Amino acid sequence: MSLTCRLYDSISDVNLPDWQRILSQCGGSTFMDPRFVAAAEAGMGESCSFRHAIVYDAVDAPVACANLSAIANFGRY
Description:
This protein is an alpha+beta fold. The protein has one domain. The protein has 2 helices and 3 strands, in the order E-H-H-E-E. It has a 3-stranded antiparallel beta sheet, covered by helices on one side. Strand 2 and strand 3 form a beta hairpin. The radius of gyration is 14 Å and the shape is globular.
C-alpha cells in the first residue's frame, strides 16, 4: 500500500472536505474540529507552531489526519 502525506502550516490551508471526511468516518474528537484548531492557532500563535497533516492512500483518498504542535518557551510565564 502506497501512502502520501501532505503537510500544512495552518488549518485554514488544509483541504477541509478531506479533513472532515476523515473525522466523520472515525468519530473525530472536538479537538480535531477545524474551528477549535483555528482558535488554538489564533490564541497560541506567539508561543506555538502548528502543522497539520493529511495522509492519502494509493488512489488519493484521505485516510488519516493529525494536528502537530511545538510549544516554544514552555514554562516561561
